[in-house]
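Quick note —
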Amino acid sequence: MQCAFQHARRERHFCQRLFLRVQSRRPSGLTTVSSAGSQPGLVVAGFGRHCLVETASGERVICHPRGKKSQALVGDRVLWLPSEDEGTIEKVEPRSNLFYRQDEMRTKSFAANLDQVLILIAAEPEFSESQLTRALIAAEAERITPIIALNKSDLAEPFGRAWTKLEPYRAMGYQVLPLAIKPKLAGSAVNTAQTEQLMDLLRGKKTLVLGPSGAGKSSLTNLLVPNAQVLTAEISQALNSGKHTTTSTTLYWIDAARSSALIDSPGFQEFGLHHIDPMHLANYMPDLKVHAQDCKFYNCTHLHEPGCGVNTNVKSASGPGVISASRYRLYSELFAELSEAPRY
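Predicted structure written out below.
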């Protein structure tokens, strides 16, 4: 047992030394403080119970929670206490928001204290409007600004169909960007105008990049953070996770001043909204919300009640601010889903 303990300690020390060595662009050495005093930091990566905390000076240190369960997420401001070779998170500061999804069995938290969410979807294969709507609702519920980015603008025909499909979202006031992001290959061209437009939106913000698997999130991260793959490998080795980037959420600075952050997150195939009250659902869908105020009853479900402003608009099928049939269908399906009794 003593040999196993010594082996584990040596392995932990090796990972710590390796991580600090490869982070040579950051100040070396941890700030010496009294064991009685904690210092502020920002969680920039995490895996399991461990996370990576960045100090105000740019140093990074592996930390673990004080209790059995880790409550710290990427984007969290924390107070941590240095120890001999790692650190302990003493407190997670109050959050301004938390972006997460929830199905019947579990909750998946992405990141905290966000300014905006960039929802990256692709023209081909055709994106799921249901997934897009769910992500937008989750952002609206936390009062986080969503931006929609449609990738593969270089594919004229499928992109044209997808762009038309997004017309109701542009009408609602959502910003929709065209992108043509490809894996970094020798000779691959970059659309400079699109990149500059995107950078203008990201400047001075903490932005979570969200999207289904295969939408191009990794290519986007590699475009804006040229050394992202190297950084990710370093973080994985330091945290001893042995996993690839897409298995955890990671924050990258995209400017030298560390004022603009891109947060890469794992891809998803499902996006549960079981934390949303079905009676509040219409408030998080801008096209329905504007007409819900015309309903006769305050507790209108917008499904069958007389004097419903939403139903009146849907049936009119014309005029300003009309709710599209696909959007109303999504609302009806989500309302039914969220109204079901738990099956566990």
